[in-house]
Amino acid sequence: MSSVPKPPPFDRADPLGLDDLLEPEDLAVRDTVRAWAGDRVLPHIAEWYERGELPGIRELAKELGALGALGMSLKGYGCAGAGAVQYGLACLELEAADSGIRSLVSVQGSLAMYAIHRFGSEEQKQRWLPGMAAGEIIGCFGLTEPDHGSDPSAMRTHARRDGGDWVLTGRKMWITNGSVAGVAVVWAMTDDGIRGFLVPAGAPGFTAPEIKHKWSLRASVTSELVLDEVRLPADAVLPDAVGLRGPLSCLSHARYGIVWGSMGAARASFEAALDYARTREQFGKPIGGFQLTQAKLADMAVELHKGILLAHHLGRRMDAGRLRPEQISFGKLNNVREAIEICRTARTVLGANGISLEYPVMRHATNLESVLTYEGTVEMHQLVLGKALTGLDAFR
Predict the structure, then answer these.
(1) pTM over the 0.90 mark
(2) pLDDT at 1
(3) Which pLDDT belongs to residue 343?
(4) Which stretches in the chain have pLDDT values below 70?
(5) Which of 236, 220, 222, 221 is nearest to 187 (CA)?
(6) Could you say which of 3.40.47.40, 2.40.160.20, 1.20.140.10, 3.30.70.3180 is the CATH number of the domain covering 246-390?
(7) Is 326 among the residues known to form the active site?
(8) What secondary structure, in 3-state letters, does the chain show?
(9) pLDDT of the residue at 152
(10) pLDDT tens-digit map of 92-141
(11) Which of 250, 271, 214, 251 is nearest to 54 (CA)?
């Protein structure tokens, strides 16, 4: 009779043994990004968050470019050409440090670079993508407007022909990286439908004032884009994007990163609660020895690792070319919602210390309030799934 192999010891950091699903190359990417975030972000992030700044963003972008984290899943033009799971693991590790850092990378690669890579001309790709992959040029993505978020088809920003040029007028709101971007991908209504335009920084009539007084994503550059009769040459338009298909496909790519990233914020909060519960003493013993605290920790661990398993499954489907937008909505809806609940539960384990920036929990919780609604609110993803399940459109 053959002997039954003995299972490995229980690993509180990986209770389901999910690392067994990863290839050595996947683990190398994860560990490299984790080490960078631990060295360059974690020692400073509480101060940055409290000040409401992301100092040295241009240097950070260049370092992320050197890691291959910008446009990570794109091929050619200096991009790493990594798999979807590897990109997801990078997002998880970056957001475990802070959602603002993951947003910097996500907007750069999954929105701005992805739009140029998928819909741009060869000349546009050669002009912008190598510098963006290296972090020498920062990009932003202008879709949301002051009065139009979930319904981009009603956007007021418009572009009109004037001889051989395009002239853009309008405003975009809540734009990550806007004030430091060297190029903005701006979506505008034209006589032919919605088109994407590449607007370089410094173009006459184009300004990007930074938005202040945020209580979420404080360690992130968030801006308004103002376009006042901005004149662009004919070759500024993305030639292969007409209609909402263009910006929505970019959003799907970015939402995939959020499926992973939200679990990074959840993991950091869970780990803080677990460490605290094993050392904080009340009534003569660590609070982790009480049944109610253990119930909280068990529930958090279950949802955290279910979410990581879901993200991994979606990543493998993306690598196989089988991932649908509805499945990305499934992942974002579940994982961000559960991540917020994990953060809130972790806060109760830490008690009053949970609101202190000495611990990461409240910072992650407030960041996730933005992640919950950007790139598709809860309601929009519920309706995406509802339509897919019933075959009936309830958006209008």
Answers:
(1) yes
(2) 53
(3) 98
(4) 1-2, 149
(5) 236
(6) 1.20.140.10
(7) no
(8) CCCCCCCCCCCCCCCCCHHHHCCHHHHHHHHHHHHHHHHHCCCCHHHHHHHCCCCCHHHHHHHHHHHCCCCCCCCCCCCCCCCHHHHHHHHHHHHHHCHHHHHHHHHHHHHHHHHHHHHCCHHHHHHHHHHHHCCCCCEEEECCECCECCCHHHCCCEEEEECCEEEEEEEEEEEECHHHCCEEEEEEEECCEEEEEEEECCCCCEECCECCCCCCCCCCCEEEEEEEEEEECHHHEEEEEECCHHHHHHHHHHHHHHHHHHHHHHHHHHHHHHHHHHHCEECCEEHHHCHHHHHHHHHHHHHHHHHHHHHHHHHHHHHCCCCCHHHHHHHHHHHHHHHHHHHHHHHHHHHHHHHCCCCCHHHHHHHHHHHHHCCCCHHHHHHHHHHHHHCCCCCC
(9) 79
(10) 999 999 999 999 999 999 999 999 999 999 999 999 999 999 999 999 99
(11) 214
Give the Cα separation of 201 and 120 in Å (integer): 18
Bridge partners of 80, per DSSP, are none
Architecture in CATH of 18-133? Orthogonal Bundle (1.10)
The active-site residue out of 23, 47, 375, 379 is 375
Could you say which of 2.60.40.420, 1.20.1050.10, 3.40.50.1820, 2.40.110.10 is the CATH number of the domain covering 139-242? 2.40.110.10
